[in-house]
Specification:
mainly alpha; 77% helix
Length: 65
């Protein structure tokens, strides 16, 4: 991914799935787990923002404008 563009919703979900898989494997230490949890929270917030923006665009299109 280019540093000058925002990740897509799908890219964010893929990153979240990767973090979930790493944490579910159970072979990481507590410090790494905490860092991954923080990163997952950041990615989740970005994904939620992207989804909200798309929903707003769809609502505008449905309203005709």
């Amino acid at each position: 991914m280019s540093p000058d563009r925002e990740p897509t919703y799908e890219e964010l979900l893929a990153q979240l799935e990767g973090i979930t898989d790493r944490m579910a494997a159970g072979d990481i230490g507590i410090e790494e787990a905490a860092a991954l949890y923080e990163e997952a929270g950041r990615l989740h917030a970005l994904a939620a923002d992207r989804l909200a923006r798309v929903q707003e665009r769809i609502e505008k299109l449905q309203d005709g404008g």
